[in-house]
Structure formats: structure tokens, C-alpha cells
Amino acid sequence: MHSENYPSRLLAEAVEQFSKLPGIGERSALRMALFLLRQKKEEALAFGTALNNLVEHVVFCKICHNLSDTEICSICSSKKRNKTILCIVENVRDVISIENTHQFNGLYHILGGIISPMEGIGPNDLEIESLIRRVHSEKINEVIFALSATMEGDTTNYYIYKKIKSYVDKISVIARGVSFGDELEYTDEITLGRSIVQRTLFENSSSQ
User: Fold this and answer.
1) What are the structural domains of the chain?
2) Distance between CA atoms of residues 208 and 205, nearest Å
3) Rounded to an integer, what is the distance from CA 150 to the centroid of its chain?
């Protein structure tokens, strides 16, 4: 980016930062910066305050690794959740997608990714050991695999299944209403909700 093309150095700096966001080019970044300048000062400052609070105060839940404003997230600390059912997901976006279906009332465990040798991601790079500790220490009756329906997702399912099958009464996987190759966050809420409700035992699934 050529800052000399901008009438203000501060505008150029703002455009440079916006353009670092995924899918945002310099033109889109300029539109965003100019949009903020057209807003009332207090509204633009509120935007900046929200970003600052996001960076300074949002943490990872020490139990499930979800994003949280506190040490333990609202889902893990809720007395209304079924604490005997644990749903394993890849990332925070998947938790949001499942919560939007209103079809699941258990707890979550976020792995932070899936096993992908092509990308150099192995079991030790994910929150698998903390998952195993949870299964050992908490009264978990069922574990649900809700990872993306991809080869990497199935590989991760099977790896974890081998690690925990001796300690959990029931291990299930969401139904294949989610087509193979699909990522969870891009699945519509009705299909995803039905896939959770109609989950099947993992040992009977075709992923082994």
C-alpha cells in the first residue's frame, strides 16, 4: 500500500490495519475507514472500545477452550446444561453453529483444529489430552463427534475414539445429514440440528 496516495497518514494507517482482515482488500479497507469517519464520534469510538476489549479481555475457557469473558465460560458454568453429554467440535464457530440449532443442551470440548498431516497438525497440536482428562475426571456418559465431514475429520474422530472408548458408555457421531466434505459452520441450522438429534453410534458408522 502506498501511504503517499492518501490525504492523511492516519487514514492510511487505518486502511492498512483493516486490509489485514481476511478477505479484505485495500479498496474495501478504505470504504470501512471512510464509513467510520462518517459516523458520530461516540459511535466510532465505541467500535474502537469494543475491539480493545476483545483483545484485552476475551480469554479461552479453561475447561472447554471456548471463548469467554471469564475463566470458565457461560456454557460450562450453566446449571441448566446436561453435564453428562460432551460434544467435540473443531472450533468456536462450530459451537456457535450448534447453539443456533437449539437442539443440544450438553457441554462442548473445542479441539482447536483437526488432525491434518498435510498441514503439519498432529494430535499433540490439539486439545486432545485435555479431552482425555475430562473424560477420566468428569461423569461423561456420552461423547458426540461433531467434526467436519472430511477425511481429516474422520481421522480425528477415530484417533480420539481409540483413546476414550474404554471410559465412556456411549460414543456417537452426528448423522450424515452433513454431506461428506462439508464444514460444520457452513451447514444450515435445520440440517445441523437434525444431524445432532439423529446421531448414531460411532462404532456403527462408516468412518472406521
Assistant:
1) 3-43 (1.10.8.420), 80-204 (3.40.1360.10)
2) 7
3) 16
- Note if the pTM is more than 0.85: no
Give the distance from CA 200 to its chain's centroid. Answer: 22
**pLDDT-derived band at 181, boundaries 50, 70, 90:** very low
Residue 7: the pLDDT is: 86
> Degrees (nearest 5) of the Cα angle 58, 62, 64?
95
Q: For the segment 137-166, what is each residue's pLDDT rounded down to a tens digit?
A: 999 999 999 998 888 999 999 999 999 999
Mean pLDDT of 8-32: 94
Distance of CA 56 to CAs 49, 51, 59, Å?
10, 9, 9
122: helix, strand or coil: coil
